[in-house]
Amino acid sequence: FPFRLFPLREHGMNWRAKPLTCQEIQAFKRSKEVMQRFTRAYQLMLRFYGISLINEKTGELKRAENWAERFQNLNWFSHNNLRITRILKCLGEMGYEHYQVHLVKFFLTETLVKETLPNVKRSALDYFLFTIRSKEKRRELVHYAWQHFKPRGSFVWGPHDKLLRYR
């Protein structure tokens, strides 16, 4: 049967791949081997995108040595954004919400602060941000994006009055 590297409970682009069930997700989470493989697959994809996982426990990330070349690929080929969204959703399904938060913040920093990934900015704001399961963490990231978005008056991903009061 078709294999998915980052399976979800929803249909993707591969019509032959079956969505995961809640029982399958729980079985995966109980298997140390499956979870180790999942982490290795995540690291492999991060390297492909020019990103390094520097702390497996916290999910902290940094640019890899080949980041400039890999970021060029990310900027040119928007299909990567679909894959990143899928990875983010899968991280949430598999109990790696802390990985989600670091990956989304990484992309927000690269798109809004460092401006190295201009063609990823819309996906980061429209899709990546809203894969975050924790409402609190999602609010923190929306606020972070709002702080760095230019022009701030054009920010449409949260109510400005609430963002002004956010602590």
Automatic annotation (TrEMBL):
PANTHER family xrefs: OPIOID GROWTH FACTOR RECEPTOR (PTHR14015:SF1), OPIOID GROWTH FACTOR RECEPTOR OGFR ZETA-TYPE OPIOID RECEPTOR (PTHR14015)
Species in which this protein is naturally found: Eudyptula minor
Keywords tagged on the record: Receptor
One annotated GO molecular function: opioid growth factor receptor activity
A Pfam family hit: OGFr_N
GO CC terms of this entry: membrane
Similarity field: Belongs to the opioid growth factor receptor family.
Protein's name according to its UniProt entry: Opioid growth factor receptor
Opioid growth factor receptor (OGFr) conserved domain boundaries: 5-163
